[in-house]
Amino acid sequence: MNSCKNIFQIPPDLNDALYNVSLVLLNSHESIFAPQPHVPCMVEIGGFHVQQPKKLPEDLQKFLDNAKEGVIYFSMGSNLKSKNLPVEKREAILKAFSKRREKVLWKWEDDVLPGQPANVKLGKWLPQQDILAHPNVKLFITHGGLLSTTETVYHGVPVIAIPILGDQKMNAKNAERAGYGIVLPFPELSEGKLSELMDEILTNPSYTTNVKQRSRIMKDRQIDPLDNAVYWIEYVIRHNGAKHLRVPYMELTWYQFYLLDVLAFLLGVVIVTVIIVKKGCSYLYGKLRKSKDKGKQDTSKLKRS
């Protein structure tokens, strides 16, 4: 807050800032999400943070290179720590991993993992992008965060997603719908369920086929997403805020924005129509009554005569 005050002598009004946005950089892409309609000042740069694979540390490189049956990479991200898993969930995961032919690389934030199987290698911090880029990595067990999802799609690795919070459930469901992942709800996590899902993904080639197709879509761009972001930022600067990209509704008054003027007009049309119909019906009813009364009078005269 103090640093903000040093920059802005008068704190900006958030509403003014919201309606004075020149450019929106969206961390999304159609390879991950369903296509969405955008206005010109909204630019997709999903995958901008993904970098070319770098050389792995010697121990990791050797571990991955020697994994002839493949590698399962397990990480719950930087905010959710595997060491804080409930004991029963940790034990279930360990038992499932111990029965695999594949090697397992686990982001584990403590010095010791009780009951660590021989095929499991630990790391308090792991270079995730470089690991996913290795051809021996066959499966990524993840929490389903956006950055992890983007990286696994870019490198073409199918996932088992165990979403915990935020957008993770949405990302996990998207992966499942797109056919390159399976959702494993945390309450349902057990040795049997995890083993079943690992077998499904590692023996069914459709998951890898689907994610590699998504990878090709993400990489097939006219311009690198980071270069695209730089271009549009500089474009807005060159054109003094690029107001010509702003859609007209940003300038609407509140009653126009909520279409109250349109609703008032439509309501007026309905009221006028009802009044006209009512008066027309009253007029026709009156004419009909007069006609009936005249008929009764004529009938009475005939009877008297």
TrEMBL record:
Highest taxon of the lineage:
Eukaryota
Keywords in alphabetical order = Glycosyltransferase, Membrane, Transferase, Transmembrane, Transmembrane helix
Record Pfam families: UDPGT (PF00201)
Q: What is this protein called?
A: UDP-glucuronosyltransferase
Please give one Gene Ontology molecular function term for this protein.
glucuronosyltransferase activity
The protein's annotated catalytic reaction(s) are: glucuronate acceptor + UDP-alpha-D-glucuronate = acceptor beta-D-glucuronoside + UDP + H(+)
Membrane topology term: Single-pass membrane protein
Cellular component aspect of the GO annotation:
membrane
* Cross-referenced PANTHER family: EG:EG0003.4 PROTEIN-RELATED
Q: What is its EC number?
A: 2.4.1.17
Return the similarity comment: Belongs to the UDP-glycosyltransferase family.
Its localization reads: Membrane
**Native organism:** Exocentrus adspersus
- Its chief place of residence is membrane
- Transmembrane spans: 254-277
